[in-house]
Design goal:
By secondary structure, the chain is of the alpha/beta class. The chain folds into 3 domains: about 220 residues, no CATH class; about 70 residues, Alpha-Beta Plaits; about 35 residues, no CATH class. About 25% of the residues lie in helices and about 20% in strands. The strands form 6 sheets. Strands 1-11-5-4 form a 4-stranded mixed beta sheet, with no helix packed on it. Helix 4 crosses helix 8.
């Protein structure tokens, strides 16, 4: 089998998308690819066949094991994976069925997806945000437990539970429910399977010789997204869309803070701002002004990765599961006064009595040291035989 690596060069502002038949890796949204040190293996844990594998700044998917069931995409917290068949649902959809269900069993208003386990929160939110329909039903035919892509009797469970919690917190009288309508497994269509290699069949003799054209005819067997060069943060567009969708569902400008994590900071903060530098999505960031710099937190793009907490040298940060009552918004955690250096003109903080920044103070200390050393070495010495 051959690999098809896609490198992320130093001169590219963002890593490119890595496509394959029915599957796309949005490398600019993948935590593993763009941000080393922020562990995320949600896709690997969700896959029923173990197709994804993670390494340092690398995500590889074995296409010969990938069922295109969408469970990896549904589990990804940043929507870095896109699987064909899980696009936007039609506006009149009131039921979701697995593709294995025969056409004659599908009722009016039914949308078909490759696997109900691939129905993630983002797909359900987008439907709720665009329609005013009271309820959406995921139809359980009783086949999931024995399906290669099932992974259990209710592979949709995490997504439905999360959406139900969000709707309850929003106070919206709408719901996503599961309709139990079992039918005999003998009526089920074929289960998901990895796509067959395409190309002209090879002669048996050429195959055993290891002909060079075998690779070209079988196609790449792995999809690889790899980050190189300087690490950078992820594109938080999917996280912002989540907040926008929740606001539309609630019919208000901003969703409630209780739907997002919050960050608490103690007075023991060392003010080195290492936490902001470690945040992969920019949720914790610096805002520089003329007279002050602000350490701010935007809960809507927080992934809950805890990178800021791990890197804090004084243990001054704590991640809270939900914010306080009221609308969510970017808020100031700490403010630091700034001054302009009298020598180099650079902005620095906090202000010092000398009016100089730390770099200029070091330069002055170095000059004083050199001056003392030159004066000491230039003094006349007594002859050795005196």
């Amino acid at each position: 089998m051959t690999a098809s690596p896609v490198a992320v060069g130093r001169n590219r502002p963002r890593p490119p998308d890595v496509p394959s038949a029915g599957l796309v890796v949005r490398a600019d949204r993948c935590l593993t690819v763009t941000r080393p040190g922020v562990p995320c293996d949600a896709c690997a844990r969700a896959c029923p066949t173990g197709a994804p594998s993670l390494a340092e700044r690398s995500l590889a998917i074995a296409l010969d094991r990938c069922l295109r069931c969408g469970r990896c995409a549904a589990a990804c917290p940043t929507e870095a994976l896109v699987v064909e068949g899980f696009g936007q649902l039609p506006g009149d959809t009131v039921r979701l069925e697995c593709s294995r269900v025969p056409v004659e069993l599908r009722a009016r208003g039914t949308a078909v997806v490759p696997c109900l386990g691939g129905v993630g929160p983002s797909l359900l939110r987008s439907w709720l945000a665009r329609t005013g329909i009271e309820a959406l039903a995921l139809v359980d035919r009783g086949w999931c437990a024995d399906c290669p892509a099932g992974g259990g009797p209710e592979p949709w469970g995490a997504a439905v539970t999360r959406i139900a919690d969000e709707l309850e917190r929003l106070g919206v009288p709408r719901r996503v429910e599961v309709a139990r309508e079992p039918v005999p497994a003998a009526l089920a269509g074929p289960p998901p399977a990895p796509p067959r290699p395409t190309g002209v069949p090879l002669a048996r003799r050429a195959f055993f010789r290891g002909a060079p054209e075998i690779r070209g005819r079988l196609g790449p067997q792995r999809l690889v997204a790899r980050g190189e060069g300087r690490p950078r943060g992820i594109d938080p567009a999917a996280l912002r869309e989540r907040a926008a969708a929740l606001a539309r569902i609630a019919g208000r400008e901003h969703p409630p803070a209780a739907l997002f994590p919050d960050l608490a900071i103690a007075d023991s903060c060392c003010d080195r701002r290492l936490c902001a530098a470690s945040c992969p999505s920019g949720a914790l960031h610096l805002e520089l002004g003329e007279e002050s710099s602000v350490l701010a937190f935007d809960p809507t793009v927080c992934t809950g990765c805890r990178a800021c907490i791990e890197v804090c040298p004084t243990g001054s940060l704590a991640l809270l599961p939900a914010g306080e009552e009221g609308s969510v918004g970017c808020r100031v955690l700490r403010r630091r006064a700034l001054a302009r250096c009298n020598e180099c003109g650079a902005t620095y903080g906090p202000p010092t009595a000398s009016g100089r920044c730390a770099a200029c103070e070091k330069d002055r200390d170095l000059l004083r040291f050199v001056h003392r050393w030159v004066r000491g070495s230039g003094e006349p010495r007594r002859p050795a035989d005196a």
